[in-house]
Amino acid sequence: MNVLLLGASGRIGQRIATELLDRGHKVTGVSRSGDIDGIDDPDFTAVAGDATDPDDIAALAAGHDTVASALGPAEDADVEILTEMTEAVIEGLREADVDRLVWTGGAGGLSVGPDTKLVDTDEFPEEAVPIAEAHIDALEIIRDANDLQWSYIAPATLIEPGERTGEYRTADGELVTDEDGESHISMEDFAIAFADELETDDAVHTQLAVGY
C-alpha cells in the first residue's frame, strides 16, 4: 500500500511510519520542513507540505492509496489550527480523488459514562481542555465527510513511548481502561492499532478507542 502520512515528524507519526514500513508499505512522510529524523528505509520518502493548504494536500495525496494523519498543533500554535488542518485535508483528499483517511485523534472526546466525555470529568487537566475540544471539533468535521472512508483512532488517556507488545484492546467511542481503571497505551502499540485499521478497514466511519 502507498501511504501519505501527515505529521510524520512527531513522536506518534514516526512510530506509525516505522510500523507501516516494517509491514512492507511505502510511506511518504510529510512535515512542514520536510525534515524527518530517525527513519532510514528505502520505501520512505520525506517531503515538505502545508497541512492547512488543500491544494498542497491534493498534490501530495495524488497517487496514494491512503492518507494517514498524526497531525497536531505545534507547541506554540493556536489549537484551532487543528480544525483548519482537518478541513484542508478533507478538501485535499476530495481534489485528489483519494477516499481513505485514517486519523489520529484525542482521548478527550471519548465517552466515560452516560452523556459524559472524558474532557467533562473533574479529573481531566484544565490545561488540556482547549486541545481536547479542538480534537472534538475536528472529529465532527470528519464525521460530516460521509463521502470519505474515514477512521478516527483515539488513544488512551496516557500515551507515551514504551514497549511494543502487540497487545491492545479497542472500543467504539468509549475510553478503554484496564482492570484497575487506568487508561494507557504505548505509542508503539498505538501505532500497531493504527496500522491494523489502515490495513483491515474494520472501523470505517468509527471513532475507535485504543488502550490496554
From TrEMBL:
Residue ranges constituting the NAD(P)-binding domain according to the UniProt record: 7-198
Any Pfam family hit: NAD_binding_10
Molecular function, one GO term: oxidoreductase activity, acting on the CH-NH group of donors, NAD or NADP as acceptor
The name this protein goes by in its record: NAD-dependent epimerase/dehydratase family protein
